[in-house]
Amino acid sequence: MIDVGKIRAQFPLLHQKVNGENLVYFDNGASTQKPQVVIDAIAQYYSNNNANIHRGVHYLSQKATDKFEETRDTVQAFINANKSCEIIFTKGTTDSINLVANGYRSMLNKGDDIIISEMEHHSNIVPWQMCCEVSGATLKVIPILDNGDLDMDAFENLLSEKTKLVAVTHISNALGTINPVEKLITLTHKVGAKILIDGAQATPHTLVDVQGLDVDFYCFSAHKMYGPTGVGVLYGKEALLNELPPYQGGGEMIKEVSFEKTTYADLPHKFEAGTPNIAGVIAFKAAMDFITDLGISTIAKHEDTLVQYATKQLLTISGMQFIGEAKKRAALVSFNIEGLHPYDIGVLLDKMGIAIRTGHHCAQPIMEHYKVSGTARMSFAIYNTKEEIDSCITAIKKAQTMLA
Amino acid sequence: MIDVGKIRAQFPLLHQKVNGENLVYFDNGASTQKPQVVIDAIAQYYSNNNANIHRGVHYLSQKATDKFEETRDTVQAFINANKSCEIIFTKGTTDSINLVANGYRSMLNKGDDIIISEMEHHSNIVPWQMCCEVSGATLKVIPILDNGDLDMDAFENLLSEKTKLVAVTHISNALGTINPVEKLITLTHKVGAKILIDGAQATPHTLVDVQGLDVDFYCFSAHKMYGPTGVGVLYGKEALLNELPPYQGGGEMIKEVSFEKTTYADLPHKFEAGTPNIAGVIAFKAAMDFITDLGISTIAKHEDTLVQYATKQLLTISGMQFIGEAKKRAALVSFNIEGLHPYDIGVLLDKMGIAIRTGHHCAQPIMEHYKVSGTARMSFAIYNTKEEIDSCITAIKKAQTMLA
Amino acid sequence: MGTIVAIQAELVEEFDMFEDWMEKYEYIIDLGKSLPMIDDKHKIEDNLIKGCQSRVWLHADNDNGIITYTADSDAIITKGIVAILIRVLSKQKAAEIAKADLVFIDKIGLKEQLSQTRANGLLSMVKEMKLYALALKDR
Amino acid sequence: MGTIVAIQAELVEEFDMFEDWMEKYEYIIDLGKSLPMIDDKHKIEDNLIKGCQSRVWLHADNDNGIITYTADSDAIITKGIVAILIRVLSKQKAAEIAKADLVFIDKIGLKEQLSQTRANGLLSMVKEMKLYALALKDR
Ligand SMILES: Cc1ncc(COP(=O)(O)O)c(C=O)c1O
Ligand SMILES: Cc1ncc(COP(=O)(O)O)c(C=O)c1O
User: Fold this and answer.
1) Catalytic residue selected from A85, A219, A362, A392
2) In this prediction, does ipTM exceed 0.90?
3) Alpha-carbon distance B117 to B149, whole Å?
4) What is the mean pLDDT of residues C20-48?
5) In sequence order, what are the beta bridge partners of D59?
């Protein structure tokens, strides 16, 4: 059993009143709060250690470089990558996906297919639309079943020798669906295509083993994993990253620059142009250590309990309509209440100190599918409690009365 | 007169010993140190205020959004932009330049010219090489005179109705040259072209008034301005930013997404896909306030004194060869010592607690021009002192003896 | 019809009487529930202001420099605030609207509803109301 | 010729005698100033390892599984360390080189010279020495 009180004590932000009430933070799918160790890691870096990396021969620069590279090694271990040069630091999942999608612009042609799904976050839709526009490739979409599962039969039908890339989310931020990534990967590889998994909602909640999965590209954000904003990861198999054209040009990513001919640096530097978010990357290690120390399965178990409890309690509300009831779900509950606009619910809950997310969750096609303008979403993290869910249910009922 | 002691007291990192000696930090051109107010702003954000921005209706999200937008307003005032929507947050100068260069890929054609200069940082070379490769445009290079000034006659000869874009640095990071940006801008506009100025080395040292300059695009990094890593700015005139195609696709940057048609959000959001470096952006305000409170001209004056003093003292070293003796210079001195490799100087100075930068400074074409493998560079900030220069000179002499 | 300043003062007084946020929001919700505040024929794409979460339709009629706004929203609270904004700005002279300083928003504690988050579309609505007035004021 | 382990131990002992960093670096600089450690005909582009700041040329000869390395650098300190690395790894069996654990680097306080910063090219040099040995060891 975990001691949630002890865990909460490590998160300074949680201990505040909002609109006179104890804060209940259920917007973890958007961004988690940060434990003191992460906040301290940033302050310590700037107070003791700050310098630009990779080029300086002086002590501070070397120390900063070593710490920066330590995080790379930690990420490698965290997702079980084969080599640390397969870990590219970006500014977030969106940046990671764009890096790959931009590279594919020149690798695809008319007649090639990219397959995404109906449940993707805009960050895993728009880059591919832009990629198709430039390359002439066609974007195909895996539909979802009404319960929120991917239509796997439809997926198999979409796959063909024309398929060059599949880009699907591991866990849906709008529905909570855990997709069968192993199966998606196997099927994709059967037709000789590559697959990118958007892991933004997965790395905070589930063990990811990129070698075990045999996934080609995997993307995620530190800020959803108790880590700092402005840091993301692109994992890619070494051979594929070597094939992928560079994304941004600049310092760090070159071997040699002349006006006649510029050659690019080896991995991972080829994809890390410019001064990175050094403080953020270094502090991200503390966030991963926080997760590893607790154990990702402990976190998942706790969050599962919360999802189940919340689902049960929400059912006591009249007019409750769950959006997304996939067989396997993680860490969040998405719903609407008959006759109520999610925005109105969100505003009134906020007045009662409760932060949930309402709206389209950057997944408008999903909203289109369910013919709703948005949903209300409670998304959980390791520091949330059943008592908080109780407060939230009471608040929803009060809002319902006010709005009725 | 400024009280440097009082200023130094605000920078926790400066008060340490490196290899048993008091740290002398002369690598400010690479990245400056951070005052306590900046470090505190980050910790306070994460401890009280952290949430994802622009979409949430709850209190924390609104407060974070307000603070994030406050920084945008502060940047607007800092560089005297006309509107706050002309301020785009990026991850750094490199990211800013790539954003523009990527947009120009589809706006240029064979027969068009882009002009850069021989003294550019790789970040203002490689993106344009990549842009030319895709668009078919031709890259032209303004040569420099041996003293480190731009060859303005050559520039006028390069300009023609074929010129579509000029991209030049405001201040050279390798030579210290302050370029005549007003004149560059006027001449560029005369042929109907647009101009991007790389301000990475300028915003920490000189007043920048984008409206006064009538510059089209202006790029800079927070981490060189006493601010956090992972934050940069692209300023662009509203009309030009509206014309420029979007860069990254994802959350935030869209108006509406469907598989048939995606429409892009208005400025500045169109260029800010994904969760940004929220903590960094918010803390950047504290850094700009720090500069504004001191006064940028006070900073410049102090740094000028240091440059002059350092130049004079360096001349007491036998075999001193300055690299870059432009008429107008800022904040740094770049040099070589006859018979010595800059790397060897850098290593030995580090042993004496002194951090300078040695190498090609991400400006290989400049090194090519002067036929050197690298230079040693002392670059200054508001917290540096003449006493530190004295220590540095003594250390260089000692290194010279050891290496002789 | 009072001046914009006077109506704002009125509103501040009214809102001062509420004991807590609940009474205040109950009042806004009541306003939001009132009859449609816009003719159905104006509820068209062209008049739509899209917040990320709630949508606002805004229509303006100009009668000799006096502007009448009608509007609606799909969310009740947004609609209630729309009603308040209309009460303040509608049926006023274009020049007055253009230069109006909407101090009441802060004073009645609705600042968060017109924040920079792009959630409800209200900030854009106010901007459009003012832009419309600005375009007319010198005619 | 001692084993790699023995030579490392020797080096640690030697370096232990230095009183301070100055003596240590004076020694390294002396090593760096010694005669060229590579035949000029091997100082070619193909043998060049580019650090950002100093450059290293590395050449390897294989004589029945015994590898002889020769190398050079344009910076004196880098060259001095190159000399030390050669002393440890050259004229050894490929299999021994491939599995060698270069503990001495840390112990003699030269860790920073083989750090992740890409400045001097030494880390790449060690990697290449090992790769070469690895490729030969099972032949
Ligand atoms: C002149 C110049 N341009 C561009 C850059 C790149 O800035 P950043 O690494 O912050 O993207 C630098 C920083 O070294 C610079 O000095
Ligand atoms: C499934 C999914 N993909 C991508 C993203 C984008 O992540 P970021 O905003 O950190 O780039 C998110 C975050 O909301 C997400 O939930």
Assistant:
1) A362
2) yes
3) 11
4) 90
5) D70
pLDDT tens-place string over residues D94-132 = 999 999 999 998 899 888 888 767 677 888 889 889 999
Predicted confidence at residue D137, as pLDDT, reads 76
How many contacts, defined by CB atoms under 8 Å, are there between A and D? 32
Closest CA to A46 of B384, B227, B17: B227
SS3 A211: helix
Find, among B28, B124, B127, the residue nearest to B379 by Cα: B28
Please report residues of C whose CB lies closer than 8 A to that of A363: none
**Alpha-carbon dihedral of residues B170, B174, B175, B176, nearest 10 degrees?**
50
Partners of residue C22 in chain A, C-beta under 8 Å: 351, 402
Rounded distance, CA A317 to CA A306, Å? 17
Catalytic center residues of B: 362
Are residues B16 and B23 in contact, defined by beta-carbon separation less than 8 angstroms?
yes
Taken in order of first residue, the domains within chain C and their CATH numbers are 4-136 (3.90.1010.10)
Q: Which residue in this structure is represented by tokens 């850098």?
A: B346
Residue to mutate (ligand 1; options B32, B118, B123, B277; most atoms within 8 A of CB)? B123
Q: Model confidence over D64-93: pLDDT tens digits?
A: 999 999 999 999 999 999 999 999 999 999
What ranges in B88-180 are assigned the alpha helix state H?
Answer: 93-105, 126-135, 152-158
Q: Is A248 in the pocket of ligand 1 (CB under 6 A)?
A: no
**pTM (two decimals):** 0.97
> A166 in helix, strand or coil?
strand
DSSP B314: H
Q: What is the pLDDT of residues B1-45, one digit of tens each?
A: 789 999 999 999 999 999 999 999 999 999 999 999 999 999 999
- Which domains can be identified in chain B, with CATH numbers? 4-26+295-403 (3.90.1150.10), 39-292 (3.40.640.10)
C-alpha atoms less than 13 angstroms from C-alpha of A323 in its C-beta half-sphere: 29
Q: Chain A partners of D52 at a C-beta cutoff of 8 Å?
A: 54-55
Q: Is the pLDDT of residue B252 over 90?
A: no
Write down the pLDDT at residue B220.
Answer: 98
Check CB contact under 8 Å for A57 and B346: yes
